[in-house]
Write a structure and sequence with these properties.
The complex is a heterodimer of chains A (459) and B (445). Chain A is an alpha+beta fold and 459 residues long. Helix content of chain A is 20%, strand content 41%. In chain A, helix 1 (5-15) runs parallel beside helix 2 (73-87) and helix 3 packs parallel to helix 4. In chain A, 59% of the residues are buried. Chain B has helices at residues 3-16, 72-88, 112-116, 119-136, 203-217, 234-247, 250-254, 315-320, 354-359, 410-415; strands at 21-37, 40-58, 61-67, 140-159, 164-182, 185-195, 226-232, 275-278, 299-304, 307-308, 329-330, 339-340, 345-347, 363-371, 382-393, 396-409, 417-420, 425-427, 430-432, 435-443. In chain B, the strands form four sheets. In chain B, strands 3-2-1-4-5-6 form a six-stranded antiparallel sheet. Classes of the chains: A alpha+beta (459), B alpha+beta (445).
Chain lengths: 459, 445
């Protein structure tokens, strides 16, 4: 699908022919495979090919984005003309551009997708394993999705990058029932350019964990309601850090002054025990990449160091507006979307207290062993997230399991209040939604204690 | 290739490749989004998406593949992938495609004004939405974005039983998110409206709605944990339909993951609750001549005065129970098969006004917004959601509330609906009037 240098230069020149400050073309060809198993049967094996190109034109603070499935040179020239017409400027001379190749076609290409045969075996193995947990298991759903994506980005700054991302994700969802009580448990596994973890043993482990979670919830009591200390276990995943802090540090939200963290660079925004990092270079993680979707090399960005706000996450557009360099966080769901600042793998770095001591030092509270989804209002900092597995802590010991809990708090206040940070670090994966675009991310944290959060349960 | 040729080529190639039955679905969709902020264009997003989905039945199994590369070679490869997919799928005696039936072409809603109106006028509409919000109150300091959006799509659907469907339709809308600031407090509010007619989009109403919500939340703080009656205005009540829609599909029932599975002809909700899905609703955003597999659209009463009457079906789930499809084989794009899902789903309105509902409450919460609605569990029906709103005391809206959590079970909540107001409003495919619900737990301080 790759266009050669001179064709890309022509498309970019056409985009800028009526003026504008920056032009970019993003080409993508993506092969996907979806396998769905439910009720013991492989119900669907869907495959597909999606290809297209997005053309972006920036002028001042305005941005024009046009996309098309037609990636022939005439198709791209037409899209470029559409972008230029939408801008409605009539000055300007066709620009002369020279592209410099940055990436190579070899990057990431060594990873070949798991074969459909192997993937079908994995989903069946997970199904059998979950069902072996007993007759209270009412239903098992296993979803497997692999996406083999090749992208090419070129822009009027002269950049030209090719990148490959092979992403694989598997989710096991178990429904357990006893009498009229129905509960669910799930577990997921995802990676980028590294399929070595998709083994039979890992599939069995995921299934066992999901089944155990669903069965445990059948015997759980409704969560208590009200304010209390909360211990988030390292294995709980990083949803809280993603919601409470990550979104508010994305440069578009900050630049629009819609973030509680706007204007606070260099200031204390968290407890000195708190260091938060975004790092797409971690090998094999679900949110990893070599280049972002604007062709900027991936890099580690320390967002908060020992409680002091050190950096936001930038894409090219917001870096340009703020007069800084992109941190390589410009991402898009596909060629159908313009890039925006997004997280990759975001984590709260490990501290010094052994996790068992953190529980031991908590007289009464909630232990969250697995987080579900969440949402934040970045302007107020208020967030919620779902507790997929939780227990009451009584006198420093883990007591009975609870269900139906949701936690609510305010991001900056929670980060300032964190009073214990553990030595462990546990990752979770997910699809992060923003402006109608979903991108793969992972997030992590060690065991931490928050002295007070609102727990939403039942009276 | 021309659209018709692509669809025909897909059919022929699949039959040649040994498929017993074939369906080809072609979608051509144009979208325009104009976002403004601070009185200036921020983003103009224009797109054209075209693609082909091919579904086959071979030896009793379904296979599916899609492509947006519409060259002859890619279409041929896609047919191969679909046929191969059928080999991996488990044997399924119910695997078959619908036979053709007559349908009402006039249900393809197309407003020529959306197409004819120049780009500048649409930009002005987005600017007018933002300006209306800013003009409503001096405490509205900025908008995060205001936008105009439109969609125009053409569908061509054919199958080897002789089914042929083709139509073009469009709709448009506008929205805004704003910020209110006073005394060091910051709050946000939103307004949105979508319609099949451009003339129905009222920028002033959208802007004012967002502004009022944000301003009324200024000074909000948590309340203590307690049980409170709830008044859920249309935009909030409609969100619960998203959870309900999943549980009301025959697919969820057949696979043992619907909490309403054994409740047909039983009282599963308060007698004031009637829930309807209507793919033929005039003016509905998801109204179309047929569903995604060519079954004519229709109106289905799911819950009638609290009694569960039926579930939503596509042709596959209907075949398994020897009943007929309700025309709910919903298709998001050419990239997916027709799953069972709602079209235009709504709570039937009652006669009281929203004000009368509020006046009847002694101690309650009027909910502006929910957070984390996507985390509600459609299998157990449990939800636990962040909420903002206004306290109701002695029938009057009083102080603003934030950072509280509203928890319960959707089944219990349906039984606890005490009154349904008359102000039915749609938010894309889900519609509701305001609902009055008996006390639920509100977690706060």
């Amino acid at each position: 699908m790759l266009l050669d240098r001179s064709d890309l230069e022509r498309v970019l020149a056409e985009t800028l022919a009526a003026g504008g400050d920056f032009a970019e073309v993003f080409l993508e060809r993506r092969q996907i495979s979806n396998i769905g198993l439910e009720a013991g049967r492989v119900e669907r094996v869907h495959s597909g090919l999606d290809q297209g190109a997005g053309i972006r034109l920036l002028t001042g603070d305005s941005s024009i984005y046009v996309y098309t499935n037609d990636i022939s040179l005439p198709g791209l020239m037409k899209a470029a003309a559409d972008a230029r017409t939408a801008l409605k400027q009539d000055s300007g001379e066709p620009q002369v551009l020279t592209l410099v190749r940055e990436g190579t076609e070899k990057r990431g290409a060594a990873v070949s997708p798991i074969s459909i045969d192997q993937a079908v075996e994995l989903v069946h193995a997970a199904d059998n394993e979950a069902r072996s947990a007993g007759d209270k298991i009412r239903q098992v759903l296993v979803r497997y999705r692999s996406s083999d994506q090749k992208v090419q980005v070129a822009n009027s700054l002269g950049k030209m990058v090719t990148d490959y991302r092979n992403r694989t994700i598997m989710i096991v969802h178990v429904v357990a029932a006893e009498g009229t009580v129905v509960q669910t448990g799930y577990e997921s596994l995802g990676s980028c350019n590294d399929n070595s973890m998709f083994t039979r043993n890992e599939a069995l482990e995921m299934a066992a964990v999901s089944a155990r979670r669903a069965l445990m919830l059948l015997g759980a009591k409704p969560a208590p309601a009200g304010r209390m200390p909360v211990v988030l276990a390292g294995e709980a995943g990083g949803t809280m850090i993603h919601e409470a802090c990550g979104h508010g540090l994305e440069a578009d939200i900050v630049g629009k002054e819609m973030s509680v963290y706007a204007g606070k660079l260099g200031q204390r925004v968290a407890s000195e025990l708190v260091t938060v990092i975004d790092d797409p270079t971690l090998p094999g993680k679900y949110g990893s990449y070599t280049y972002d979707d604007e062709g900027t090399p991936a890099q580690e960005t320390v967002l908060i160091r020992n409680g002091i706000l050190e950096s936001y996450m930038y894409d090219l557009e917001w870096a340009r507006r703020q007069g800084v360099r992109s941190t390589g966080n410009g991402r898009r769901q596909s060629f159908q979307f313009h890039p925006i600042p997004r997280m990759s793998n975001t984590y709260l770095a490990s501290g010094e207290t052994p996790p068992a001591e953190i529980i031991g030092q908590t007289d009464h509270g909630l232990l969250v062993k697995r987080m579900g989804g969440g949402q934040v209002n970045p302007t107020t900092g208020d967030f919620v997230f779902d507790v997929a597995e939780g227990y009451l802590i009584e006198k420093g010991r883990v007591s009975y399991p609870v269900r139906g809990a949701t936690l609510s708090g305010n991001g900056p206040r929670v980060l300032l209040a964190v009073d214990l940070v553990g030595t462990d670090l546990g990752f979770g994966i997910g699809t992060c939604g923003k402006d109608g675009q979903g991108v793969p991310v992972s997030d992590a944290q060690p065991t931490i204690r928050i002295p007070e959060l609102v727990v939403g349960g039942l009276l | 290739m021309e659209r018709e040729t692509i669809v025909q080529t897909g059919l022929q190639l699949a039959e040649k490749a040994g498929a017993d039955e074939v369906e080809t679905y072609f979608l051509d969709r144009d979208n325009l989004t104009i976002e403004v902020r601070g009185g200036k264009l921020e983003t103009l997003h224009r797109s054209r998406e075209r693609g082909l989905g091919i579904r086959v039945v071979k030896a009793g199994s379904f296979g599916y593949a899609f492509t947006s590369d519409l060259g002859q070679a890619a279409v041929a490869d896609t047919v191969e992938l679909a046929v191969q997919g059928a080999k991996y799928s488990s044997l399924d005696s119910g695997a078959s495609l619908p036979t053709p039936a007559s349908y009402d072409r006039s249900l393809a809603q197309f407003d020529g004004k959306i197409e004819e109106t120049p780009l500048e006028a649409k930009l002005d509409l987005a600017l007018a939405i933002e300006q209306a919000a800013l003009n409503t109150d001096t405490r509205i300091t900025k908008s995060e974005r205001a936008a105009y959006e439109e969609n125009d799509y053409t569908v061509l659907l054919a199958n080897s039983h002789g089914l042929r469907v083709s139509y073009r339709a469009n709709f448009c809308g506008g929205y805004v998110w704003v910020v209110a600031e006073a005394n060091g407090d910051v709050q946000t509010g939103s307004g949105l409206s979508y319609s099949t007619q451009l003339a129905q989009i009222d920028p002033v109403a959208i802007g004012q709605e967002a502004a009022l919500e944000a301003v009324r939340l200024l000074g909000a703080r948590p309340i203590k944990t307690q049980k409170l009656a709830l008044v859920l205005p249309p935009q909030v009540a409609a969100q619960f339909l998203g959870i309900l829609a999943t549980a009301l599909t025959a697919e969820a029932v057949q696979k043992g993951r619907s909490l309403f599975a054994d409740q047909i002809d039983k009282q599963m909700a308060s007698p004031v609750v009637t829930i309807i899905d209507d793919g033929s609703l005039v003016g509905g955003i998801n109204t179309a001549p047929t569903d995604g597999e060519g079954v004519p659209s229709e109106r289905t009463i799911l819950v009638e005065n609290g009694v569960l009457r039926t579930f939503l079906h596509n042709s596959y789930t209907a075949g398994k129970e020897e009943t007929v499809s309700t025309g709910n084989g919903v298709r998001g794009s050419f990239k997916t098969t027709p799953e069972v899902g709602p079209t235009n789903m709504f709570f039937r309105p009652g006669t009281a006004s929203e004000e009368e509902l509020i006046q009847s409450v002694d101690q309650g919460l009027y909910v502006f917004d929910l957070m984390g609605a996507h985390t509600a569990n459609p299998i157990s029906g449990d939800f636990s959601l962040g909420a903002t709103g206004l306290l109701i005391e002695q029938g009057k809206l009083t102080r603003p509330v934030r950072q509280v959590i509203l928890a319960g079970n959707i089944q219990d909540m349906l039984n606890q609906v005490q009154a349904v107001a008359s102000n039915l409003r749609f938010y894309l495919g889900f519609g509701s009037p305001a609902l009055l619900v008996e006390p639920l737990t509100i977690s706060g301080d």
